Amino acid sequence: MVLWIFPGCPLSRTLSSLYYYFWLLLLVLSLPDLITATTTSQTSHHFSFHTVNTKYGDLQGVRLQFSSSSAKHLDPVTAYLGIPYASPPVNAYRFMPPVAPSPWGGVHFAVNLPPACPQRFPDISNETIALQVMTSQRYHFLLRLKPHLTNQSEDCLYLNIYVPSTGEEIRPGKFAIVLVIHGESWEWGSGNEFDGGILASLGNHIVVTFNYRLGILGESEVP
Ligand SMILES: *[C@@H]1O[C@H](CO)[C@@H](O)[C@H](O)[C@H]1NC(C)=O
Ligand SMILES: *[C@@H]1O[C@H](CO)[C@@H](O)[C@H](O)[C@H]1NC(C)=O
C-alpha cells in the first residue's frame, strides 16, 4: 500500500523533514494531473452490475467511463463513493474517537460523494485581497476546489474507493492501494477533492480517498 500524504495532513507532522520534502515534491509533480482529474474529466456513469459484500453489508458502486479526449483510451473504473467507515460522529459521538459503523441492511448505494466535514475554507471572495496573501496559482487552485467542499455535514466520516475495471467486471487480481490523505492543516479539505478515477485506471491500482474531522470537531483533546 502506498500512503499518499499531502503536506499539512496529520501524519506529515510526525515525518522527518526529508520525507516531508519528498512528498512535497511528489505533490508538486502530481497535482496538475490530480486536479485535472477532478475538474475536467468528462465521465459517464451508470450503476455497476455487481454488488460487493462487506462485513457491514452489500455495496453497489458506479461505473465511470471516461469520455474526454485525453482520457478516452482509459479502461473504466468502478467507484464506491461515500462508504461509511465510522458511525456518524454526532451527538454522544461528537468529540469522541470514531466508533465502528453499524451494519446497513440490504444494499448500500455508494454512488454519490459524501458531504465534506464542517470546515473553514480560506476567504477568497475578493480576488484583490486574496492575492495579497497567496499566489495566483493558489488562488485559482482554491477556486477550483471550492465547489467540491460546499456540501458539508458533521456526518462526514466516509471514504471513496476507485477500482480498476474491465468491461462490466472489476478487473481480477490483486492491486496496490494508494491511500490519499488530504492536507490543509486540519482546517479544511476533503477526500472528495481528488477524483481517484483516472489515477486508478492509469496506474492500475486502487485509489482510496476519505474525510476526517477538522478544526474543533477533529482536534479537540478536551472533551
Ligand atoms: C449533500 O449531501 C447529502 C448527503 O449525501 C445529499 O443528500 C445532498 O443531496 C447533497 N447536496 C448537494 C447540494 O449536493
Ligand atoms: C476588493 O477589495 C479591494 C481592496 O480592499 C476593493 O478596492 C475592491 O472594491 C473589492 N472588490 C470587490 C468586488 O468587493
Report on the structure:
- Residues 51-218 form the Carboxylesterase type B domain.
- It comes from Allacma fusca.
- Pfam families: COesterase (PF00135).
- This is Carboxylesterase type B domain-containing protein.
- The structure is a single chain.
- The protein has 223 residues and is an alpha/beta fold.
- The chain starts with a strand and ends with a helix.
- It is flat.
- The chain has helices spanning 17-40, 127-133, 136-145, 196-203, 215-219; strands at residues 2-5, 43-54, 57-66, 77-84, 107-109, 158-166, 169-170, 177-181, 206-210.
- The relative contact order is 0.20.
- Strands 1, 2, 3, 4, 5, 6, 7, 8 and 9 form a 9-stranded mixed beta sheet that branches.
- The model is unreliable at 12-41 (pLDDT under 50).
